Amino acid sequence: MSIEIIQNILIVLLAGYVTLDNLGITIVNYWAVTTGMIAGFIMGDLKTGLLIGGTFQLMSLGVAGLGGASVPDYGLAALVGTFLAARTGSGLSAAIAVGLPVGLLAINFDVLVKILNNFVAHRMQTYAHRHEFEKMRMIGLLGPVMFALKNILIMTIIVSVGPKAVSSILAVIPKWVTNGLNIAGGMLPVLGIALLMHYMPVKKYIWAVFIGFVFSAYLKLPIIGISILGAAASIIVYKVGLKNSEAKAAVTQDNVKETGDDDYDE
């Protein structure tokens, strides 16, 4: 058995496992950066896996499936992108060009699986009314399994026809298109960060944004260094805020006591 076949099998199994893991006790997680890293390790190109996974992770910032809404599957996109980039040697442009549409396409499959899970839920309810709890528990396992099969099916198709198709397409695509995809790959993470900042109290902590910009743009400090400084600043802000809250609570309590003493004296 060749190494490519082993890699194909492991990638398909990984697509199913991370889905089950995300719906269960979550030993790993389903973040794009994690799936990309593991896929890169399997494909023997950890650096590419981290790069692609990190790119899709930044895209997903600020995106959440609230109320059961279906969102792009960035974890699957990172898995697909890393596999194709490592297998074809095409880099980030192919990962964005193929991985992101697959992640968007997964929305339709996600909706379909959720519809099928409605029947599973009703059957579980029927068994619960009959006090057949063992049957209820067993049929309840179909829900996570269907979600896992969804990703396994998609990944199997990608593994079977993806590398050849991508290589053929990239051979005829003009250079300016791939350059544009690389530029888009650098812009989309900014969009994810902007979505995240939209829900954060940026106006209140605008000073932190300016400081981070100066460190990055002018002092050329790496992102890890800025993250460490940001963590330290957040601890300081938290402690100062906690101290101020305790001081306000103490003043309020003293005022209440004084008011109570005055009423008693009268």
Topology of helices and strands:
Blueprint: H1 3-23, H2 32-43, H3 46-60, H4 74-88, H5 92-129, H6 133-140, H7 142-172, H8 175-198, H9 206-217, H10 223-265
Helix pairs in contact: 1-2, 1-7, 2-3, 2-4, 3-4, 3-5, 3-8, 4-5, 4-7, 5-6, 5-7, 5-8, 9-10
Low-confidence stretches: none
The tally of structural domains comes to 2
- Largest beta sheet, briefly? none
Regarding quaternary structure, what we see is single chain
**Mean of the pLDDT scores?**
80
Helix content range of the residues, please?
over 70%
Number of DSSP E strands: 0
Q: How would you sum up the global shape?
A: flat
Alpha plus pi helix count: 10
Distance between the termini: 94 Å
Share in β-strands? under 5%
Decide which structural class fits the backbone: mainly alpha
Radius of gyration: 25 Å
Order of helices and strands: HHHHHHHHHH
Describe the structure.
The protein is an all-alpha fold and 266 residues long. The chain folds into two domains: 2-199, no CATH class; 201-256. Helix content is 82%, strand content 0%. The chain contains ten helices and no strands. The protein has helices at residues 3-23, 32-43, 46-60, 74-88, 92-129, 133-140, 142-172, 175-198, 206-217, 223-265. Helix 5 (92-129) packs antiparallel against helix 6. The radius of gyration is 25 Å and the shape is flat. This is PTS sugar transporter subunit IIC.
